[in-house]
Amino acid sequence: MDGETATGTESWEDCMLAPVDRLRLERADSPTPGLVEGTEPGAGQRSAMFVQAQSFEDLTSEAEEEAQRSAAEENPEGPDEGEYKVQNHDFSSDSRTKEEDVSSEAWRSHKKHVFVLSEAGKPIYTRYGTEEALSSTMGVMMALVSFVEAEKNIIRSIHADGCKVVFLTKSPLVLVGVSRTSQSDKELLRELQYIYYQIVSLLTLTQLNHIFQNKQNYDLRRLLAGSEYLTDNLLHRLERDPGLLLSAVTCLPLASCSRDAVSSSLQAAKAKNLVFSILLAGDRLVTLIRKKDQFLHHIDLHLVLNLVGSSSSFREGEGWTPICLPKFNTSGFFHAHISYLEPASELCLILVSTDREDFFNMSDCKQRFLERLSKRCAYQSLKEALKCPTYPVSQVGIPDLRHFLYKSKSSGLYTSPEFPDVYRSGQEQERLMGLYQDLHSCLHHPTRPLRSFYRCGETENLLAWVTSGFELYLCFSPLASKASAVAAVNKLLKWIRKEEDRLFILSPLTY
Amino acid sequence: MTVFNQLLSNELPVQPMMPGSVSSSVTCCPFFPRVVLLQVMLLGDSAVGKTCVLVRFKDGAFLGGNFIATVGIDFRNKVVDVDNLKVKLQIWDTAGQERFRSVTHAYYRDAQALLLLYDITNKPSFDNIRAWLTEIHEYAQRDVVIMLLGNKSDMAAERVVKMEDGEKLAKEYGVPFMETSAKTGGNVELAFLAIAKELKHRATQQPNEPKFKIHDYIESQKQKSGCCSLG
Amino acid sequence: MLMISPKMASGVQEKQYTPCLLSFFIYNPTFGPREGEEEKKILFYHPSAVEKNEKIRNVGLCEAIVQFTRTFCPTKPAKSLHTQKNRQFFFEPEENFWMVMVVRNPMIEKPNKDGKPPTIEYQEEEILDTVYGAVVRQCYCMYKLFNSTFGRAMEAGGVELLIQKLEKFFYRYLQTLHLQSCDLLDVFGGISFFPLDKMTYLKIQSFVNQVEERLSLIKYTAFLYNDQLIWSGLEQDDMRILYKYLTTSLFPRHSEPELAGRDSPLRPEVAGNLLHYGRFLTGPTNLKDPEAKFRFPKIFISAVDGYEELHLIVYKAMSAAACFMISASVELTRQFCEQLDSLVGPQLTLLASDICEQFTINRRISGPEKEPQFKFIYFNHMNLAEKSTIHMRKTASVCLTSVHPDLMKILGDINCDFARVDEDEEIIVKAMTDYWVVGKKSDQRELYVILNQKNANLIEVNEEVKRLCATQFNNIFFLD
């Protein structure tokens, strides 16, 4: 173990971690030294499952610029007026408690408001209060946007002490966020971008454009009726879920042999138009099989996670719903077969097909998957694993370490222990997430990015480190010293390397 | 009719027997399929209670609390006994929202029966019934069985659609009608059973057998919504 | 033959533009509430050549932004508007009076082939709100130092007088703004104190007491050496803005003759008289001139019942400068000035050489100056003391820093971080260029250190900063 001890004292700033190097040699045959992308702990062995997203920056790139993968395209369902013969008038039946006085202090002091409006200034969504009551406020928002636009300029944000307003124009929609958090403009824009994609995933961009080209004054709430809870939930997730911050997803810890058995069972249950098969345990990925050459973008996957996680309507039967995956293709719908393996189970299977008429084929795929799964006894071990979907940070064995986030850049997967008691309450959890968000935006500053960031405060000490292979965010007790933080990084990376085949999906499959 | 015959299927797994069930006699008969498969679709505006009616029928429970919008369409099975014959109902619960219209249209033509619901406390949902019927005529099979249901009959205080108006509309289109309550369960079972009977009769009818009259059957069985509140 | 690759060629022609002042205006929305009267709201507009309707439009946008922000924060007004091309900073120093500064984002102009107009890329993340917000506040403080409040001008002569005063002041003042070199020091707006041994300090204090006693008209005195403050009888906030004026405007304007004067041992006109280098930086340039005017600039400082109007006399001998402030109600005469010159001139000359000598000795003790591995900025919110080894020299026109602008902006980012939470904090970051930047906040004090030790690790950096604190700041910072 001489080598171990020597590498343990290696400083983490060097961007070169000997233990990783050693393991890399065991895993890959390229002799290139150093920690390069694709060899970090958690990196997949074969090809990645996701689009190689350059995390943060990728979000701001125009969806339209995204290479259109036409293989799975479907004719966009351009709505002609005839299709809307049956009208809904039941916006009021919405069960959200939105009846809030929009001139009240309580309404004003919400931590984060989000508004969506059309370019004609018509309200489409508000997180708090009713759209009707806010129509004049949204009118002013649109006026500000157009006024600045008339000067051949673009409005970005307004800043006041402790409050900022951020604008995002995504024709034909305008999104406005009002935040009392310390998040940077960039972070807030990223969140608005998510909301935009959420709406596109319900309607497709083609349909959105078509609607507003035909009728500028169209009330989009008619088409989005009943979907507000998806946006509400997505906003909630943005405050709580590290995956949305890191542009990554996390996996159900599972022995690699079990995961491989589940994966190959799912791989075998294929069909002509099936593009993605996703097995989830709650918000955690168990496995994901994709068509060769087709990649799922993490944003699209998060939209799927949000849809499944927000709706209890899939609990019992088999759901079949059109869904646009905007990072894949903004113009067409996929159709997703969504069902839980058992009503009370956390395991949810999502089969994404290109064909609207594919329900029975997908239903059949699910049956075949279940049969194989039970034959291989993998179902039992999967159910076992469900009993401990998380792990306490104490497993890592670093006394001062309270919590961490580790993202493998090449696989787009992250791992993180459960929140310790200090951060158990929703409020504390959001505070910690806020701290991570701050670290994240400092490290990924658009013009002044940083390699590492250490903050020593009264309530906790934080350390963040980004390399070409991974991103690491650690939270220590405020009593931890800098020396112990440095040592912790090395120890943690070793631990993750040791546990990687349980915490990550190292061998993703295609059909 | 050919479509229907295809649905007389043998390949379905045997459903668990109910106590006192006489289905064994059916399964013994070599000329008779064990299970009849029927597709039923629930339609109507968003929030009229389609999912609640389905859950009441399937699980005998009421989904209280918050409104959960169905996403796309939701597919569930329930096996019922019709005149000693097992009938497997494949029920499509649909989302009422406009944006899911195209996916529901795709499955209209597979349905043999449509339960069209409105909410007696919501006038627009009743007014939209005509539009729904137009759509049905456009997309569904010609001989599809349609039944009009005025749901939420327990909410007498908030009623805005009179029962007579429902009856009148149903008569105009020649479809059976009743008021239901997913909350109390009033007429829910009957609605599904009536449909199952009608379809079963259509499927297995012998030339000299008397025709099943769904209207008469309903009239004889249904409880007026008033009964519950009086009782 | 010289070959230029296309990329190189385009690189050569790429033009980089630093942030610059697009416009600066002051308006009061209550002055032209009716439609068609909007122009009346505008009290000052730079550049004045802008077409009337455009002025009205731009003011209208600001009003709308301010009004809109109230929907969400009725008590906290809008401070800035970010757009792709520029940033606008809002400041309401007095009720309903709004000052707005519009700064164009830095940009890169990339030429296009085929005669197409060049592509302009705006660098939207380069301007720090805290820095330019502070610049606007400074503009107002400087106006107030010489003119008192907007409200006072209104009382004295209505809108006409206010417009006149604003024109007169800002026309010249705005030319002295150098937006491209503003940084963290503008946020602090601190005062650099001259480090001095006790003996010399006592000498200065007794000098001040003596002058104030002999010339009882003097209400307040301030004493500076080498552009650094040693003694001040003013309130901190007044001294802060006066200090800013002296060090960035008045002293630099007189530095040239000063340097020249040092070569010739004595002023010719006083050579036969008392031996001293003293001269007035404000007021009469030559006391012997029979035509000399004894008019001094007037300044306004805060007083218990509002403000106090004072004559500002700045008198300098070599590197030592004394500011004497006398109530504006008194008329200053030739006799008084001569008296002051003869009393202060010789003593100040002596003091200046004393301080210089003392300073040199101290320097020798602390050893020869070698280029340290670090540079730092220190600021104390309690006494406004600031110290920077990053800024080589601050003049009216430029503020030269010895580090890359990106590092200065990282300091600014850390400062914003500190400002958000009211607790002690320490931040250590490593930039992409491998420089380490350390920020410490403890008990109203802030310290920022830039270390050029690319191979150091977090622990070594921490040790280095510890050493710095021990030697430079007597361990005032809490250390772990």
UniProtKB/TrEMBL annotation, chain A:
Short name of one Pfam family: Fuz_longin_2
Example of a GO cellular component annotation carried by this entry: Mon1-Ccz1 complex
Biased composition (Basic and acidic residues): 82-101
InterPro entries: FUZ/MON1/HPS1_longin_1, FUZ/MON1/HPS1_longin_2, FUZ/MON1/HPS1_longin_3, Mon1
Record-annotated FUZ/MON1/HPS1 third Longin domain positions: 400-500
Stretch list, region Disordered: 23-104
Superkingdom classification of source: Eukaryota
Domain spans labelled FUZ/MON1/HPS1 second Longin: 272-370
Occurrences of domain FUZ/MON1/HPS1 first Longin (ranges): 112-234
GO biological processes: protein targeting to vacuole; vesicle-mediated transport
Similarity comment text for this entry: Belongs to the MON1/SAND family.
Function: Plays an important role in membrane trafficking through the secretory apparatus.
The protein's name: Vacuolar fusion protein MON1 homolog
Organism annotation: Nothobranchius furzeri (Turquoise killifish)
From TrEMBL, chain B:
One Pfam short name: Ras
Entries under PROSITE patterns matching the protein: RAB (PS51419), RAS (PS51421), RHO (PS51420)
Cofactor or coenzyme needed: Mg(2+)
Keyword Magnesium: yes
GO biological process, one term: protein transport
UniProt KW keywords: GTP-binding, Hydrolase, Lipoprotein, Magnesium, Metal-binding, Nucleotide-binding, Prenylation, Protein transport, Transport
Entry EC number(s): 3.6.5.2
GO MF annotation list: G protein activity; GTP binding; metal ion binding
Reaction catalysis annotation: GTP + H2O = GDP + phosphate + H(+)
Family: Belongs to the small GTPase superfamily. Rab family.
PANTHER family in the cross-refs: PTHR47978
UniProt protein name: small monomeric GTPase
Organism: Nothobranchius furzeri (Turquoise killifish)
TrEMBL record, chain C:
Similarity comment text for this entry: Belongs to the CCZ1 family.
GO annotation terms (biological process): vesicle-mediated transport
GO cellular component, one term: Mon1-Ccz1 complex
Protein name: CCZ1 homolog, vacuolar protein trafficking and biosis associated
Cited Pfam families: Intu_longin_1, Intu_longin_2, Intu_longin_3
Domain CCZ1/INTU second Longin span(s) in chain numbering: 218-344
Matches recorded under InterPro entries: Ccz1, CCZ1/INTU/HSP4_longin_1, CCZ1/INTU/HSP4_longin_3, CCZ1/INTU_longin_2
Residue stretches making up the CCZ1/INTU/HPS4 third Longin domain: 370-468
Annotated ranges, domain CCZ1/INTU/HSP4 first Longin: 22-147
Species in which this protein is naturally found: Nothobranchius furzeri (Turquoise killifish)
